[in-house]
C-alpha cells in the first residue's frame, strides 16, 4: 500500500513511518440520584493528527518531490522524480503556515499496489506545533514532528435593530459573515488540463472535498486529466 501526504499543494517527500489520528470525545459523565453514573453524549471534539516528517537533504531514489497526486503516481511508475527540494523548502512552508494564521488542507491518500484509491483523510487543519530535529545518525537529513488540529469554519452574524412607527423594535439578522475564506462558485469551467484535486484545490483554497465533487460529476478516476472547456459542478 502506498501513502501520499499533502499539506495544501506541498507533498511530503517521504511518507511518515507512522502517524496518530486522535478523535477527541466530549461526552460528559454525571451522577444522578438513585441512578448512578450516566453518560451525556456530546458532539466530538476536534481531531488531532500527529506524525514525524523526514526531510532529506539528498535526492534519495525513494523520495518523491511532486506537487500533485497525478505527478506522484507518474514518478512512482517511472521510478524517478525530477523536482528535488532541500529540507529548508519544507521548513519554510511550515513557518509560513504558522505566520499566515490560516487553515490548510491536509490530505493523506492510501492507494493499493494497483493504484486504486483505498481511502483517505481529507480535512481543513491548522498547524499547531512543529519542531526541527537534527541527529548525527541521520546525516544531513532533518526530522520535523508535526501536530495538526482539525479546523471547523465558523462565522458571525450581524444584527440590525429598527424601530417602526408604533415604537416597536424589530431585530433583523443579516447574512452570516464567514470568519475566514472566500465565496466559492457553484460551478467552474476547466481552463487547462488538470486533475479533479488540482481544480477543486485551486477554486476553493482546499475548503471543498474533492471526493464529493468527483462523485457529483460522475468522475471515477482521481488521476484523470479534465479537458479544457468542461463545466464541473461544485455544489
From TrEMBL:
Name assigned to this protein: LysM domain-containing protein
